[in-house]
Amino acid sequence: MSARVARGKVGVMKRDLLRLFTACGVAAVLVSPGRGWAEAPAAAVSVFDSYVGVVEGRLADQHRSQDGFLAGEAGEPQGWARLRRGEVLVEQVTPRAGAELPGAMLHHWRGTAFAPGAKAADFEQMLRDFDGYSQYFAPQVIAAKTIAADGDRVEGWMRVRQKHVITVVMDSTYDVQFGRLDARDGWSASRSTRIAEVDGAGTSSERELAPREEHGFLWRMNTYWSWEERDGGVVLQVESVSLTRGIPVGLGWVVRPFVESIPRESLEFTLKAACRR
Q1: How many other C-beta atoms lie within 10 A of the C-beta of residue 87?
Q2: What's the rounded mean pLDDT across residues 26-36?
Q3: Which helix H or strand E contains 44, and what residues bound it?
């Protein structure tokens, strides 16, 4: 074996070991119990609520006019060209200085995609149909149902499974408000009202964990959709603002890439699934 080949194999082994160590480290941190992780700190919730207020104020202004109905890269010529090519645009909106909260982390991401041939009315109908979410957004959404519907307000329930090194199942309820500027431009605001971690999902020992038992994978989750029918299709844009437990001191290099990959991958999956419908 040549020295170059030997060095190459050693390099691959080191990378594989690093990936394994990182995965094991993330899993250990995420599933290990810790005081203050089970319930969201009041100070962090207060910051989250204030941040959401600013986001919703900006969206309200954004949705009052067709000019600038969508935010971020979607409103730029280069971004629109990428969308027409079938790309999904994902942007991290969270201000770096404001992501770290007392015992928690705030995440804000925006994703945009273009669905050729789609109609705005059809997309809104799909969003309202909680009962169909387990088909539209499988395998992440295991089950879903409409709890109540009254005009432009819908209350829905979902069971979601996320698999990243470890598998987490959560039951959550959402209060969703729909609105529209006209027949081609619409929006919705979905706010979590309850999120519970499920242990042993799908087995005879299935149960919701008590707040003191949970790991803080997700404390709050707000989702904001904007859609615009144009150029023979519909531009779909979704913004996700969530609150999770913080990263233990000294382990940011292990956990942060993992934590930040979850909302990005979730947005990409959701947009691609919506476009397929």
Answers
A1: 14
A2: 46
A3: helix 42-62
Q: What is the rounded CA–CA span in Å between residue 270 and residue 260?
A: 16
Q: How far apart are CA 87 and CA 268, in angstroms?
A: 10
Q: For the chain, what is the radius of gyration of the CA atoms?
A: 20
pTM greater than 0.85 (yes/no): no
Share in percent of the chain as helix, strand, coil (round to 5): 40, 35, 25
| 197, pLDDT greater than 80 | yes
| Residue 125 to residues 35, 98, 187, 188, 255, Cα–Cα distance (Å) | 43, 35, 12, 12, 38
pLDDT in tens, 44-78: 999 999 999 999 999 999 999 988 899 998 888 89
End-to-end CA distance of the chain, in Å?
Answer: 53
Tell me what the pLDDT averaged over the chain comes to: 83
Q: How far is CA 248 from CA 2, 73, 120, 164, 245, in A?
A: 44, 33, 44, 18, 9
Task: Give the residue from 136, 154, 137 showing the smallest Cα distance to 146.
Answer: 154
Identify the CA nearest to 68 among candidates 226, 252, 234.
226
